[in-house]
Design brief:
By secondary structure, this protein is an alpha/beta fold. It has two domains: about 30-65 and about 320-410, Aspartate Aminotransferase, domain 1, CATH 3.90.1150; about 65-320, 3-Layer(aba) Sandwich (Aspartate Aminotransferase, domain 2). Helices cover about 35% and strands about 20% of the residues. The strands form four sheets. The protein has a seven-stranded mixed beta sheet, with helices on both faces. The protein is globular and about 65 Å long. The structure holds pyridoxal-5'-phosphate (PLP).
Length: about 425
């Protein structure tokens, strides 16, 4: 065992991990020490394709020189400055850039935080507090979908519907009514609802399940008609995953709140943002107690903002959105071939550059373990394999990925 493995087993505690198995003497955990493009390298120099974009964060490949040098340059000039009562130029530029993806007078204000959970938490608290300050204090409940995932902090988790993660803490947090489909909206007493929260186009943690086409647009109309805020959690879907910059643009929908995180910095350093409208923002003007008393020490960290600006520039420089349709088609085609005549593959669910490969019960874990020996690292969600490479993946690398999956299935399935 390497020194880093010994120290890890003695002192580290990993998320979503059964530590007893992790620390077992015969378990050899991978220690990742380097990355470049879609490839990550372990301590021993073995090379793997990053099949889930390092837990859904990476966009343009690892260690893109433009982002790395923007980070280095910013770290030498201004590493951090409090955003409480102070501003800095990069946060100003990044806010303007983020709202520029939407028509004028729609999403105009940007509130920064650190991760996807806090981006959602901010939207929930803003929605609720805005009601209190607009004489709509009876609107205290939220609507969310079964099997949704919105993060792990208590407030965000109370909107989560993945029972194996959240049932223990479900009675804490925000009051939430869960829906299974659009049909359930008929049974909602809307008078005391402040907002509806959804992962647009596709639920991620719920084994990559796309919503029916047109549903988001319908939801926008329904929420607007009832005076309910629409909060879109684009923590996974944002920054090109679905083929557009944001998933809501696929159906021409503009929410009241847009939450982004994971891919905001291209998958380099933590940063998140919650975008909202001036209607919401204006409820926080006036007396001192109306302000939004929420924030984190590293809110709008300048190094994070520099990384985000550099990442957003690369979309233009690389012409990312022109390259995506071809890649999305190839992924669809290769995965469909994988399904043919193979009983272990039950369903392929694809939404843009993201896919879930549903396998026969009991195969998920074994297949991803086998894929490692064929040079691909990804994760399973139960028996669904997550297929979510960085957007910069080449057609040859897509081929490599699917061949590894095929080889693993042949061995296991
Ligand atoms: C990952 C994720 C979150 C939580 O983001 P963190 O940065 O892990 O806190 C929230 N919502 C969705 C849809 C996600 O995929």
């Amino acid at each position: 065992m390497s020194e880093s493995t010994v120290l890890d087993k003695a002192h580290c505690w990993h998320p979503f991990t059964r530590q007893e198995q992790w620390c077992a003497p015969d378990h050899q955990p991978l220690m990742i020490s380097r990355a470049e493009g879609v490839w990550i390298y372990d301590e021993n120099g073995n090379k793997y394709l990053d099949g889930n974009s390092s837990i859904w964060t990476n966009i343009h490949g690892h260690c893109r020189p433009e982002i790395s040098s923007a980070i280095a340059k910013q770290a030498a000039v201004l590493d951090h400055s409090s955003y409480l009562g102070l501003g800095h130029p990069l946060a100003s530029r990044l806010s303007a850039k983020l709202v520029s993806f939407f028509p004028e007078k729609t999403l105009e204000r940007v509130f920064f935080s650190d991760n996807g959970s806090t981006a959602v938490e901010v939207a929930l608290k803003m929605s609720m507090q805005s009601r209190m300050q607009k004489g709509e204090g009876e609107r205290v409940r939220f609507l969310a979908f079964d099997n949704a995932y919105h993060g792990d902090t208590l407030g965000a988790a109370s909107l989560g519907g993945v029972n194996r993660f959240f049932s223990r803490f479900q009675q804490l947090g925000f009051e939430t009514q869960f829906l299974s489909s659009m049909a359930d909206l008929e049974n909602v007493d809307t008078s005391d609802v402040t907002a509806l929260v959804i992962e647009p186009l596709i639920q991620g943690v719920n084994e990559m399940r796309p919503w029916p086409k047109g549903m988001l647009k319908e939801l926008r109309e329904w929420t607007a008609g009832k005076g309910i805020h629409l909060i879109l959690d684009e923590v996974m879907t944002g920054f090109g995953r679905t083929g557009k910059m944001f998933a809501c643009q696929v159906e021409g929908v503009i929410p009241d709140f847009l939450c982004v995180a994971k891919g905001l910095t291209g998958g380099t350093v933590p940063l998140a943002a919650t975008l909202t409208t001036n209607q919401v923002y204006e409820a926080f003007l006036g007396p001192a107690e109306n302000a939004f008393y929420y924030g984190h020490s590293y809110t709008a960290n300048p190094i994070g903002c520099a990384a985000a600006l550099a990442s957003l520039d690369i979309f233009e420089k690389d012409g990312t959105f022109e390259t995506l349709p071809g890649k999305i088609a190839i992924i669809g085609q290769l995965l469909a071939e994988l399904e043919e005549g193979r009983q272990s593959v039950l369903e392929i669910r694809q939404c843009g550059m993201v896919a879930g490969i549903q396998l026969r019960q009991g195969l998920g874990e074994a297949v991803i373990r086998e894929m490692r020996s064929f040079g691909v690292i990804t994760r399973n969600i139960l028996d669904t394999i997550v297929f979510m490479p960085p957007l910069c993946i080449s057609k040859e690398e897509i081929g490599f990925y699917v061949r590894a999956l095929r080889a693993a299935l042949s061995k296991v399935g």
